[in-house]
Amino acid sequence: MKPSNTEKKRQIGIRAKIFGCFLLFLFLALSILWFAQIILFKTLYKDIKVNELSSTAKYVLSETDTVGFYSNLADAAAKNLICAQVTDEYGDSVYSAENNTYCAIHHLPSSIRYDLIRSTDDKYSGTALYSVVLNPVTSDYDVRYVTNSYTLPESSDAIYVERFSHNGEILYLFLDSQIEPVGTVTKAMASLLIVIGALLVFLALIVAKYVSGVIAGPISEMNKAAKSLSKGKYTPVDCGTKEISELNDTLIKAAHDLNTVERMRTELIANISHDLRTPLTLIKGYAEVMMDIPDEMNAENLKTIADEADRLSSLVNDMLDISKIESGNSSPKLSLFCLTDTVRRCVGSYEKFTKHGGYRILFSADARVYVTADESMIVQALCNLINNAMTYTGSDKSVDIKQSVTGNMVRIEVTDTGEGIEPGKLKLIWDRYYKVDSEHKRAAVGTGLGLSIVRSIITMHNGNYGVRSTLGQGSTFWFELPVSELTGKDDAGTQDANTQDANTQ
Ligand code: ADP
Predict the structure, then answer these.
(1) pLDDT at 441
(2) 346 and 495 belong to one structural domain
(3) How many CB atoms lie within 10 A of CB 67?
(4) Which of 176, 233, 269, 460 is most buried (most C-beta within 10 Å)?
(5) DSSP-derived secondary structure for 98-146
(6) Is the pLDDT of residue 505 over 50?
(7) Pairwise pLDDT comparison (440 vs 346), residue with the higher score
(8) What mean pLDDT is predicted for residues 269-292?
(9) In which band, very low, low, confident or very high, does the pLDDT at 234 lie, cut at 50, 70 and 90?
């Protein structure tokens, strides 16, 4: 079904999709970058600063009673650009290491330091972090306890206070790190991100154009080439990718198959019109003769008309059967039945040919076998094989039908003594509408559908089928079905279609 115009409009091309995917990816990547740089940067920066204070304190306070305690403190503070001060319990300085000119602890009045010491001792068990902001207008210090680094205000001093004992004396360590305003840095990074983003969008567009060209280009070319596929033509598109060359191969095969089907269709129309015309001409001719010459109204001529009508109906039935089977509308109606009896009855139905047509049709079975299958379909397959054998058998007009059981499979073989089939054509004869030789004696009658019907029926029953043939000696067509039940030796022995009634159990 053709897509409607509105459906067509809603479809997006591969190029647009690739562009869209690239831009979406870029948008996500830039958003992540933006979030990491602008939002996380501030938090991380403060975290690092606070960690520096606590790790420096931990390091210097690990050995407080050593002689080198103060020089250790000075080194560690200088290394991290931290200002350090040691005070007694009243906030008066005992030792000081100044590494930042504007640090708060060196400018805090000792009363504030004393307040900090008291609150650290009373409320925070001897260790606490504070933020100190100098109000430039009032010159007051705004001191606050800090629960986590995130709440540290910008342009403040983070002050870490810890009580410790040095040679039996209680002292307090003050470490000060300045929290620089990172707003300018993040603003600079934001502008940089805009420039980088614009550059990336530009680059992404170029890459997307290239990628979409590489992917969509051959597909559009193939689409153009595939438009002539309905005529059985396809010119492969040259490109270096595996998937496209596989698609090329598939389309080449499709074009080849279409050609074959088209050839078969033309042959079939020719065959069918020929096959239909022959009996119709005969029926019309005989009927006209009988109308014009009353003496010709005899049983023999009427039989010819009836025979030709039979030929017509079997041709039409064959065509209906194959189309029913191949469209999947005909599923087997399974039942348990005695295959041996069914084959025997089927062979018996050829009695008129053995009695009046000079044929010798023999059936032999090694056991009575039951199968679970669609009986009428199996009879149809067998009749097709017997009909072919009778058509192509040699001048002795003999056809042998044999049933044999091997393991859990029963095989039915139909052997004739005809010209046989060339080895190269043995596979093709199972194809629809295939005829070995259009000059062949049955070419005027056969449709090339009989064996294809056999193949479909046996495949439907999970059976096997095949043919052996020797040029000049004849052919044996066979099929196998899974055995459902075995009831010992078949008592009827070899049966001639002529003596069927006597032998059938
Ligand atoms: P058709 O209706 O033409 O017989 P089939 O599908 O039954 O169609 O057979 C396909 C072709 O296989 C026949 O045209 C014939 O050439 C060949 N064929 C079938 N059965 C035999 C046979 N027993 N001996 C020789 N050739 C056969």
Answers:
(1) 47
(2) yes
(3) 7
(4) 176
(5) ---TT-STTTS-HHHHHHHHHHHHHHSTTEEEEEEEE-TTT--EEEEE-
(6) no
(7) 346
(8) 83
(9) confident
Mean pLDDT of all residues in 273-291: 84
Q: Could you tell me if 168 and 83 lie in one domain? A: yes
Residues 397, 376 share a domain: yes
Residue 478 near ligand 1, beta carbon < 6 Å: no
Nearest-CA residue for atom 2 of ligand 1: 446
More confident residue, 453 or 180: 453
Cβ(318)–Cβ(310) below 8 Å: no
Number of structural domains found in the chain: 3
Q: Domain containing 181 — which CATH number? A: 3.30.450.20
Residue 270 to residue 250: CA distance in whole angstroms: 30
pLDDT digits (tens, 9 = 90+) for 117-159: 999 999 999 999 999 998 878 878 899 999 888 888 888 899 9
Mark whether 339 and 314 lie in a shared domain.
no
Whether residue 351 contacts residue 498, with contact meaning beta carbons closer than 8 Å, is answered with yes
Compute the distance between CA of residue 348 and CA of residue 501 in angstroms, rounded to an integer: 7
For a substitution probing ligand 1, which of 397, 451, 457, 473 has the most ligand atoms within 8 Å of its CB? Answer: 451
Residues 425 and 353 in one domain: yes
Q: What are the pLDDT digits (tens) for 415-469? A: 999 999 999 999 889 987 677 765 444 444 566 788 988 999 999 999 999 999 9
Predicted confidence at residue 493, as pLDDT, reads 57
Q: What's the CA dihedral at 128, 134, 138, 144 to 10 degrees?
A: -20
- Could you tell which of 271, 388, 469 is best to mutate to test the pocket of ligand 1, judged by most ligand atoms within 8 Å of the CB? 388
Q: Which of residues 185, 200, 228 is at a domain's end?
A: 185
Ligand 1 within 6 A of CB of 166: no
Q: Are 245 and 227 in contact (CB under 8 A)?
A: no
> Which phi-psi region, left, alpha or beta, contains residue 162 (left: φ > 0; alpha: ψ -120 to 50)?
beta
pLDDT recorded at residue 443: 45
Lowest-pLDDT range of 212-216, 326-330, 374-378: 326-330
Closest-lying ligand 1 atom to the alpha carbon of residue 416? 23
- Name the residue with the closest Cα to ligand 1, atom 11: 435
Closest by CA to 218, choosing from 244, 243, 247, is 244
- Average pLDDT of the residues in 77-93: 91
Whether residue 415 is found in the same domain as residue 481: yes
In a domain, 217, yes or no: no
Residue nearest to atom 17 of ligand 1 (CA): 436
Task: Give the integer Cα–Cα distance in Å for 490 and 369.
Answer: 9
Quick one: pLDDT at residue 502? 32
Nearest CA to ligand 1 atom 21: 388
Q: Could you tell me the residue range of the domain that residue 56 belongs to? A: 41-185
Q: Has residue 301 been placed in a domain? A: yes
| Alpha-carbon span 371 to 462, nearest angstrom | 12
Q: What per-residue confidence (pLDDT) applies to 105?
A: 85
State the number of CA atoms in the 13 A half-sphere of 429 facing the CB: 23
**Which residue owns the Cα nearest ligand 1 atom 16?**
436
